[in-house]
Amino acid sequence: MTAGTVLMSLRSGVGNQLFQYAAGLQVAAELDATLYVQPAPGSGIGLLDLLPEGSVLRAGPEQWRRFRLSPEQRSLQRRLVDRAARAMPWHQRRVAHIRQVVGTDQHALAPRKGRIDAKDCFMSGWFIHRSWFGNTAPLVAEQVRTTLEVHPAFGLGRGATVISFRRGDYVRLGWDLDLSYYETALSRLGSDAGSLWLVGDDALFLEMARPWLAARGHDVRVVPDLGGSRALTDLAIIAGASGVVMSNSTFCWWGVTAGAARGRPDNADAGRARTGEPHRQKLVFVPEPWLPSANQSHEQAGLRHPDWQVVSTCFGQTIT
Questions:
Q1: Sheet containing 243-245: which strands, arranged edge to edge?
Q2: Partner of 170 for a Cys bridge, out of 47, 108, 123, 176, CB 3.0 to 4.6 A?
Q3: Is residue 116 predicted with pLDDT exceeding 80?
């Protein structure tokens, strides 16, 4: 009997891609199938930059022929399949007899509904709900950590707090976090905050945020240029930090989650073991709601770790 195939068409930024990959792994395990991925277009870092070499199977012509599709981004067949997957949350649609399309709404933290009853499955969409990734996210987080913990930025955050800002299209959509969220989180941290490292997708905003935080008595550091991708540097410093004030981004979520995954014991861990010094729990603050609509709660989606501290927030404010 021919083994089943799950073909995941990755999209958007690396944080979303990691959720998609974890969902694909989970579906493939349920169907006793093999997962193949089509990398997302773009110039930024992607899934293949974060996972161990050889751990991800890239889709080839054979997998695309299996679904009677073309891997070309401009293929009419591909666009029609993507449109069906995006437009119909939790929809399962027959394609080429035994093959299915599974997709979720673009911005919904949508739970999975129903089972997949075909051995071959084409997946396209956003799968940001624990019902999609709950079984496989720990494995993916461990794999990401193996990449990040050897990055020179990983150790910069030890004893310090990373403040993550997500701007970009969030400003246009009204999803950018009110600055009172950051002030509340930092007030809770108090003297435990240590030095602050600022990361984000808007360099000009970070330049304005530094004096804003310095005027409130914080020791604000500038992340050095360590070469290579700045996004990879930001992800590594988030993963290695002692504290994180999260933005409502999947990029930050995976940085924090990878940082909490099992990794190699470092010299500081060995020193604590010898002296009996307790290991300091990572302090993580997360906004609630995750996005400004009634159905966009990270708690409902199963995104919040029990150890993370919730800070109520609103959206759409700027530095004054």
A1: 220-221, 196-200, 161-165, 243-245, 283-288, 309-312
A2: 176
A3: yes
